[in-house]
Amino acid sequence: MRALLIGATGYLGAHVRSAAAATGVEVITAGRQPAGGRHVVLDLARDPQALVEAVLAELAPDVVVNCAGATTGDAEALSAGNIEVPATLVAAMTAGGRDMRLVHLGSAAEYGRGTPLVPVAEDTPARPLGLYGATKLGGTRLVQLGRNAGLPAVVLRVFNPVGPGAPAHSLPGRAAAEVARAIAENDRVRLGGLDAVRDFVDAGDVARAVLAAAVGPLPRQGLLNVASGRAVSARELVHGLVDIAGVTVAIDEGEAGSARSADVAWQQADVSAALAALDWQPCTPLEVSLKELWRSTV
User: Strand pairing of 197-198 and 232-233?
Assistant: First the structure.
């Protein structure tokens, strides 16, 4: 099995790369900057489709895994990372004529607001609230169009990953960094409101789902939620980090928080489709994920 991994230096991409290598999958990476290992410099948001087709023909991967994407920036940056990249991939893979599979990572932000106590399933209408969710949904729609045209493809709609390397713009990454700062400075943990409820899934469990989608039978359903299936408040996550740090520290929720957290008060996934289609299930307790995140922070 040969996989072309796009976005291998990112948060989830790094976890996917490690998991794939551990299972004997030959991994070739692609990205805008030079990197170690077998790597091809490729800018999918700007390079012409013909170049991408030539790279795919030369490398002949069995599967292309797209972990790339933009999480912050203006409309142009978000569109480039989340719409133009999958658009180029779908066009090049469809034109190439080879039976290579595409596994694309989507986002829970595509759903928008959730209903308290009601897990969201894949057939729930997607109503993103911001540019990030809207552009991620655009990428998902393009992959679905490719699938309708015959491309073997699946979108994994990932909820809130937790684990080592969590980026600073994510709640787990921001919270871990803030707890570490508060301990070092003998200060309070200063965050925004922590009422929001999310479905936190271990990054390693996400990587296992990606591999299952890459090497197993092509799922009949082209869109699958990848999550823990549990609803956990942001407050519980932060208190869990403080407990793992083994300190007594006050938590101040008076700082300016994320506008998205205020707009999306509740999100929880129904993961039954992924369990059935991929023979996969989330197996890492949140406490374990938080311990690994904390170790990587300090």
Answer: antiparallel
Range of the domain at 42: 2-163+202-229+268-283
φ, ψ for residue 148, nearest 5 deg: -60, -30
- For strands 189-190 and 251-252, give the pairing: parallel
Q: Is residue 289 part of a domain?
A: no
pLDDT single digits (tens) 190-215: 999 999 999 999 999 999 999 999 99
Distance CA(261)–CA(241), nearest Å, equals: 19
| pTM, full prediction | 0.95
Q: Which element (helix H / strand E) includes 155?
A: strand 153-158
**Tokens representing residue 233 in the block:** 């408040």
In total, how many domains does the chain have? 1
Domain membership of residue 245 (yes or no) is no
Q: Is 273 contained in some domain?
A: yes
Mean local confidence (pLDDT), 60-64: 96
- Interacting residues of 19 by C-beta distance below 8 A, sequence separation 6+: 204, 207, 208, 210, 211
- List the catalytic residues: 132
Alpha helices in the chain (DSSP H): 11-22, 49-59, 75-79, 85-96, 131-148, 171-184, 203-215, 234-245, 259-263, 272-278, 286-297
CATH number reported for the structural domain that contains residue 70 in this entry:
3.40.50.720
Domain-embedded: residue 186? no
Residue-wise pLDDT tens digits, 139-178? 999 999 999 999 999 999 999 999 999 999 899 999 999 9
